[in-house]
Specification:
This protein is mostly beta strands. The chain is built from no helices and nine strands. Strand 1 and strand 2 form a beta hairpin. It binds copper (II) ion.
Length: about 140
């Protein structure tokens, strides 16, 4: 089952704002915003993927799932490696998970635990690699 949800509007009162300093070493690699969970995202060569959460992310651990499809629409588990990093953009690095590999499940889903340890704005950065080279970077932001 895919859970669809929208992040609350930015600009809402953020208890984090002003309490954390931006890290000067913030990663400047560009991670464009991904379409919402449940939407198909195109990859090179006719491949595509869909990401979703087991539940709308909140305090605690949620599971981020990615399903990859080959050009014929069949589930693909061999072409790409996927890595993810969870962090709070307002205090980059303070709660970062570091870049972690998604684990392939028996069902052929790529899974990553997403740990949220405090209220505020969070993001998961996703990197999809083929033969070790990033072919897609994207971020999904959400408020807790
Ligand atoms: Cu924080």
């Amino acid at each position: 089952m895919l859970l669809l949800f929208t992040a609350s509007p930015s600009g809402a009162a953020d208890p984090h704002q002003g309490t954390h300093k931006q890290s000067p070493a913030a990663d400047r690699t560009d991670y464009p915003h991904l379409p919402k969970p449940g939407k198909k995202v195109l990859l090179e060569g006719g491949y595509s993927f869909v990401y979703s959460f087991d539940k709308s992310p909140k305090m605690g651990t949620s599971i981020l799932k990615i399903e990859v499809f080959d050009p014929s629409g069949k589930k693909d588990t061999t072409t790409f490696d996927i890595r993810g990093e969870t962090d709070m953009p307002s205090m980059r690095g303070a709660h970062s998970s570091g870049s972690q590999p998604f684990k392939l499940s028996k069902k052929g889903d790529y899974l990553l635990p997403v740990n949220v340890v405090m209220p505020g704005g969070w993001e998961v950065r996703i990197t999809i690699l083929r033969n070790g080279k990033p072919v897609l970077r994207g971020t999904y932001g959400f408020d807790v």
